Amino acid sequence: MKVVPVPKEFFGNFFRGDSYIVLSIKEIKGSLDSHIHFWLGSETSQDEAGVAAYKSVELDDFLGGSPVQHREVEGAETSRFVSYFPKGLTVKAGGVKSGFNHVEEVFKPKLLRVKGKTIPVVSEVEIGWENMNDGDSFILDLGQTIFAWMGGKCRRSERLRVRIFLRNRCVFRQLSEIFRYSNR
C-alpha cells in the first residue's frame, strides 16, 4: 500500500473505507506547533489502519520527532482535527480504490446526517426514519433533487452547515428544503 496525496479541493472529504494522514504545522510565537493526525474510517481495513499509523511515525521521524501524534477515529474526531476543515468534515460511504479517482458507477440515494457543535460533521447514514432524530439535521440526496430536513432541536450551527453544504453542492441541481420545528 502506498500513501497518496489528496487534492486540496477534496480536503475535509473522507471515505469510511479509508485511512488518512493529516499534517498541521503552524508558527506560534516564533516556534513551530506541529501535529500529525491519522484518521481511521469505520470500515477501513486493518492493513490500511496499520499503514497510516506506521507512515505517521515515519513522518514524525522525518520532521525530527517534534510533532504531536493523534489517532482520530470516525465519529470521535478531536476538536483540533475538526478545526482544520472550516467548511466541515464530510464522511462518505465506500473507499478509494486507486489513487484518488473515486468513481461511482451508478448514483445511489444518500441520507447525510449533520451533527456537531462548533463545526458540524456531515456523515452518510443508511436511509430510513429510524436513523433520523429531532436533534440533528439531515440531507436526502436523490440525485437531481435534494431535501434538507432540520430537526426541531438541532443547533443553529447544524442548520448553517446544511445551508453551506447545499450551496456548495447544488449549483446545477433542483433544491427543495423542508424545515421542521418542534412545538417546544
UniProtKB/TrEMBL annotation:
Transmembrane segments: none annotated. One of its GO terms (biological process) is barbed-end actin filament capping. GO terms for molecular function: actin filament binding; phosphatidylinositol-4,5-bisphosphate binding. Residues 2-82, 120-159 form the Gelsolin-like domain. One of its GO terms (cellular component) is cytoplasm. It holds the Pfam family Gelsolin. It comes from the Eukaryota. This is Gelsolin-like domain-containing protein.
